[in-house]
Specification:
By secondary structure, the protein is α+β, with helices and mostly antiparallel strands. Helices cover about 10% and strands about 20% of the residues. Strands 1-2-3-9 form a four-stranded antiparallel beta sheet. The chain has a three-stranded antiparallel beta sheet with strand order 6-5-8, with no helix packed on it. It starts with about 70 loop residues before the first helix and ends in a 7-residue tail after the last strand.
């Protein structure tokens, strides 16, 4: 979600692969400050040595093979490819870089438990919706039509570029959330976001103010 907010995004090593901290036994500790877990070697390949020429200085993170760079490069729905698409979108949309920011609420048709952040730059508007309560939610009817799915983080393909057909925020599963734009432009306003198994899920919506529909 930070890629849609104001400020400079900060991605720590492994964030783009969805890596968890490594479990470091006492005899393998390097940093007395306890930061070894997040400094585990990046798994480059699916091999047992994860692409390192010699034994790594720290244990590999959990699920190193399936979350390796090689495995994720080959999977369009991977976390790594999601980051690539989101970063490309941020570069392409000035509103996400320098636009004004406002938190939306009930008066905007946003139900409780949903974090909605609006970004605007001139005539461009983008809205990120994040379902924070771990349950489904229903958006106000004003969000029900006129939008196209720009990025679908669950399936990374089939829904992208298709119309968003409803205003229900549903659980999409772990790491499943969507970013949507209004019909007629690459960026334009509302879709679905959910929180499942403790993972933040959401959608990004965008539009050209006053050009797509009345609100």
């Amino acid at each position: 979600m930070q890629l849609t907010l104001r400020g400079v995004p900060c991605l720590f090593q492994g964030d783009e692969l969805g890596l968890e901290d490594a479990i470091v036994p006492p005899d393998r500790v390097v940093d007395p400050g306890g930061r070894d877990g997040c400094r585990a070697p990046v798994p480059w390949t699916e091999d047992p040595d994860a692409g390192w020429s010699s034994s790594a200085w720290l244990p590999l993170p959990p699920d190193a093979a399936t979350r390796s760079v090689a495995a994720q490069q080959a999977d369009p729905a991977s976390t790594a490819n999601l980051y690539r698409r989101l970063l490309a979108l941020r570069h392409a949309e000035p509103a996400l870089v320098r636009g004004a920011q406002r938190i939306l609420g009930g008066a905007d048709g946003i139900p409780g438990g949903v974090l909605a952040v609006q970004r605007t730059d001139g005539v461009d508007e983008l809205v990120t919706l994040a379902e924070m309560a771990g349950r489904g939610a229903v958006l106000d009817r004003r969000w029900a039509s006129g939008w196209t799915v720009a990025i679908d983080t669950q399936s990374a393909g089939p829904r992208e570029g298709t119309p968003f057909a409803g205003a229900t925020i549903v659980s999409l599963g772990v790491e499943g959330f969507q970013w949507a734009f209004p019909t007629g432009r690459i960026a334009n306003s509302a879709d679905v976001l959910a929180n499942a198994a403790g993972s933040l899920l959401g959608i990004l919506l965008a539009r050209v103010l006053g050009a797509c529909r009345d609100r």
